[in-house]
Amino acid sequence: MRKTYLEPAEVDLLEKNALTKVRQNGRWGWVPCLRDQLLIRILFRSAVRVSEALGLRVPEDVDLEQAALHIVRQKERLRLYCPACGVTLGKAYRFCPGCGQEVAEAVKKAVETRRERTVPLDPETTAMLREFILRGGPRDGRLFPIGRSQAWNIVHQAARRAALGPLTNPETGREHGVSPHRLRDAFATLAMQVDDSGDGQRKLQELMGHKSFNTTARYRKLSGRELHDWYKKVLSKEGKDGP
After folding, report:
1. What share of the chain is helix, strand, coil (3-state, %, to 5)?
2. Cβ pair 144, 35 in contact under 8 A
3. How far is CA 97 from CA 42, 67, 88, 93, 102, in A?
4. What does the alpha-carbon distance between residue 218 and residue 108 come to, in Å, rounded to a whole number?
5. Domain boundaries, position 105
6. pTM here?
7. How far apart are CA 24 and CA 43, in angstroms?
8. Domain tally, the chain
9. How far lies 192's CA from each of 7, 41, 63, 73, in Å?
């Protein structure tokens, strides 16, 4: 049966396989890597984007006393405007909805947006963060002094060592390897399984930093096993009470 998301036990297995190769007593061997384990934990337990995790600064974004992370997300978008009246246009607009004139070439302006949020940390992750900082893991004020490609490779290699197979996108049917975003996806799916009420979804929206509630609601997806169990339950009900 095809899997659509990682389960908590598989994320734990992924973390345990975040290893680094070192030379000890004249021999090379694999040992746990605190930095990589911490990255995987934060990607899952805080449900942050990989760019947000790599953008964390120490100490300003890491509050060990309050057990929380301060997430800052900056994004630049290109906006289109009517050259005649200045009304905002969509990409496919040929005529301005404001003045009605045909738009030969829209005025383009780059607009930067900045959004901030605070996400909680569990006690174990907070303790790992404290140890990592005391060991001098951060560099130049960055909690994780690595690039996006290296972060992706950390997760990919840990998944390979843990023998975690590809995941299937339930909307497209395409298979993808385990990546940093699949950890964020795993937390969101778990949260929906625990509490898919309107209030629960709004809290998840705030935690994940979604601008649109519809983006959060899409995480209410069923695994193959859940759908299979539901189907058996429906048929068993039919057998007991009649069609």
Report:
1. 40, 20, 35
2. yes
3. 45, 49, 9, 8, 10
4. 32
5. 72-118
6. 0.79
7. 30
8. 2
9. 13, 19, 27, 24
109 with 127, same domain?
no
Is residue 176 one of the residues assigned to a domain?
A: yes
Which stretches does DSSP call E strand in the chain? Answer: 19-24, 27-32, 62-63, 68-81, 88-89, 107-120, 167-168, 175-176
Reported as type and span, the H/E element at residue 90 is: none
E-assigned strand segments in 121-216? 167-168, 175-176
Q: Which of 128, 169, 127, 140 is nearest to 18 (CA)?
A: 128
Torsion of CA 110, 111, 112, 118, to 10 degrees: -150
What are 94's two structure tokens? 């040929």
pLDDT by 10s per residue, the chain, length 243: 578 889 999 999 999 999 998 988 889 989 999 999 999 999 999 999 999 999 999 999 999 999 999 998 876 678 888 999 989 888 889 899 999 999 988 988 877 777 899 999 999 999 999 999 999 999 999 999 999 999 999 999 999 999 998 998 877 888 989 999 999 999 998 998 888 888 988 999 999 999 888 888 887 765 455 666 777 888 886 555 544
Question: 161 with 224, same domain?
Answer: yes
